[in-house]
Write a structure and sequence with these properties.
Layout lengths: L1 E14 L3 E8 L3 E7 L18 E7 L7 E10 L2 H5 L1 H17 L7 H15 L4 H15 L19 E4 L4 E4 L10 E2 L2 H12 L12 H18 L5 H12 L1
Parallel strand pairs: 3-5
Antiparallel strand pairs: 1-2, 1-4, 2-3, 4-5, 6-7, 6-8
Helix pairs in contact: 2-3, 2-4, 2-7, 3-4, 4-6, 5-6
InterPro entries: ARFGAP/RecO (IPR037278), DNA_rep/recomb_RecO_N (IPR022572), NA-bd_OB-fold (IPR012340), RecO (IPR003717), RecO_C (IPR042242)
Protein name: DNA repair protein RecO
Function: Involved in DNA repair and RecF pathway recombination.
């Protein structure tokens, strides 16, 4: 069956002398693996669309069942040139791509997550604050994957006003009255609580320029990465690499 889909390359592996195995995250069909024959060759008509992070329209053959498809042709829609030429931005994009690959299941379309990934790549390309974009992306995709932190109020008593920390153990905000429930809770500044709630609610295309203090940035990352490590099975090589890159820049 010949399938046409709007998609983005989230993984690319060399196969044999001239081929590539691509993982596409598509709007219409979810995550799909395809063989791009000859794509490693410079003169191949598939070489330009077989690059990691390529966003375009793809045409591929796919048989019945969950077997791998065969890429026939593709047309790039956006090149994300700035993203590709900046090593730190590329590191963030690789992290987004691997996080998507690990969380979504094959052949399960999710138009919202597809748009989230494309919009997040676009924000990186437009030189938005990559660290803040990353926190927004993490919150959205974790929630969609069934790993949603409780950010509306205290995870223990439901209280919505006052001072809050974050309980990794309980999976959300914890108010000062309930601190005794988790002595290992993370202390948070009020600004961190506010930004976490904002990022949880806002969509990427509405993200403007946010001035965030270094200590608040550190708390945001600590909360979400501790939450991921405790509540998900995800262990991402791209996150380790990103951590190294952020220390260099």
């Amino acid at each position: 069956m010949l399938i046409r889909a709007e998609g983005i390359v989230i993984r690319s592996n060399d196969y044999g002398e001239g081929n590539k195995i691509l993982t596409l995250y598509t709007k219409e069909h979810g995550k799909i693996g395809v063989m791009a024959r000859g794509a490693k060759k410079t003169k191949s008509r598939l070489s330009s669309v077989a690059q990691l992070f390529t966003y375009g329209n793809f045409l591929f053959y796919k048989g019945a069942g969950r077997g791998m498809g065969s890429l026939s042709q593709g047309e790039p829609l956006e090149s994300f040139r700035e993203l590709r030429q900046d090593l730190l931005k590329t590191s963030y994009a690789a992290y987004f791509a691997e996080l998507t690959d690990k969380i979504v299941e094959e052949n399960e379309p999710n138009a919202y997550l597809f748009r989230l990934l494309v919009d997040s790549f676009r924000l990186l390309d437009e030189d938005k604050d990559a660290e803040i974009v990353s926190r927004l992306f993490e919150l959205k995709i974790l929630s969609s994957g069934g790993y949603r932190p409780s950010l509306n109020g205290c995870v223990v008593c439901g209280r919505t006003e006052g001072y809050f920390g974050f309980s990794v153990q309980e999976g959300g905000f914890i108010c000062e009255r309930c601190y005794h429930v988790d002595p290992q809770k993370l202390s948070l500044q009020p600004g961190t609580v506010k930004i976490l709630r904002t990022l949880y609610l806002i969509e990427p295309y509405r993200l403007g320029n946010i001035n965030v203090k270094p200590e608040t940035r550190a708390e945001l990352k600590k909360v979400l990465w501790f939450f991921m490590d405790h509540h998900t099975p995800l262990r991402l090589k791209s996150r380790d690499f990103l951590e190294k890159m952020t220390k260099l820049f």
